[in-house]
Amino acid sequence: MSNVPAASALPRRDQIRKEAARLFAARGFLGVGVDEIGKAVGISGPGLYRHFAGKDAMLADLLVGISERLLDEGRRRAGDATAGGGAEGVLNALISGHVEFALDDRDLITLHDRELLHLKEEDRRRVRRLQRGYVELWVDVVREAFPALAGPDEEPVARAAVHAVFGLLNSTPHSLGPNLPQGERAGLPRDGMAALLHSLAQGAFSAAAQAAASSAAGAVGLPHETTTAAEEGLGPAGG
After folding, report:
1. Residue 218 has what pLDDT?
2. Per-10-residue mean pLDDT, the chain, length 239
3. What pLDDT does 239 receive?
4. How many CB atoms lie within 10 A of CB 238?
5. What is the largest CA-CA distance in the chain?
6. Can you give the pTM of this predicted structure?
7. Which of 25, 176, 229, 237 has its CA 20 to 30 A from that of 35?
8. How many CB atoms are located within 10 Å of the residue 233 CB?
9. Pairing outcome for strands 188-189 and 184-185
């Protein structure tokens, strides 16, 4: 998920997407008119209809598009990492991809949080279906990476951990001032913020595995101290 180029270097349809996302995120879908979007890209409002059927179509294109991109990119990263290593590498690849999304696509995160209800029902169902596929991809990888989360009773813990990590990563834009550049987050260089978020996500999954292992040990009456980290699944499988 590479950084978005400057609007002037984008094809016209992509310029419209970029400016629509920026304006919708700043003022809300209902607070932005077609003429404003056209002005932002240097064409008349009616000229937008050569590219999109209207505002509803722009919003659907943005929200369905990012949901498709996340799932496709997640699958690609998972496939590439699987070819080069085990579940730990796959999970790291997924985390890296979502961190990039959180840092580079803050407008789309804001749109998803606030404007999903304005989609037509068919488009909203499509977004939800894509999102479920993305979540399932992560849940499967997390359960493979952490043996303590692999059992059927631990599946809800793994799923909750995945949603918690998404919440953590996706909340990043909301903690920032509106005038901060895309490459700088909370006073940290972009690479430093990306490394911090990656570490926090890994820590959340390790904590979920530790909680599951502790619960399992208590259920069978075993003292927690007698189990090793590997037995608990606190580290990735095979690690």
Report:
1. 66
2. 48 93 95 93 88 94 97 94 85 96 93 94 97 98 96 96 96 60 61 94 97 77 38 41
3. 43
4. 11
5. 72
6. 0.81
7. 176
8. 26
9. antiparallel
pLDDT for 86: 87
Of 227, 203, 205, 201, nearest to 214 by C-alpha is 227
Q: How many helices (H) and strands (E) would you count in the chain?
A: 9, 2
CATH superfamily of 56-232: Tetracycline Repressor, domain 2 (1.10.357.10)
* Residue found by looking up tokens 């509803």 in the block: 56
CA 153 to chain centre: 26
Round the CA-based radius of gyration of the chain to a whole number and report it. 21
Cβ atoms 204, 168 nearer than 8 A:
yes
Domain regions of the chain by residue span: 56-232
Here the contacts of 91-97 (C-beta below 8 Å, separation 24 or greater) are 91/141, 91/142, 91/145, 91/202, 91/205, 91/236, 92/198, 92/202, 94/137, 94/138, 94/141, 95/165, 95/198, 95/201, 95/202, 96/194, 96/198, 97/1, 97/70, 97/73
Rounded CA-CA distance 146/209 in Å is: 6
Give the residue carrying structure tokens 């570490």: 199
> According to the model, what pLDDT value does residue 83 have?
76
Distance CA 121, CA 30 (A): 17
Look-up of token digits 């399992």: 216
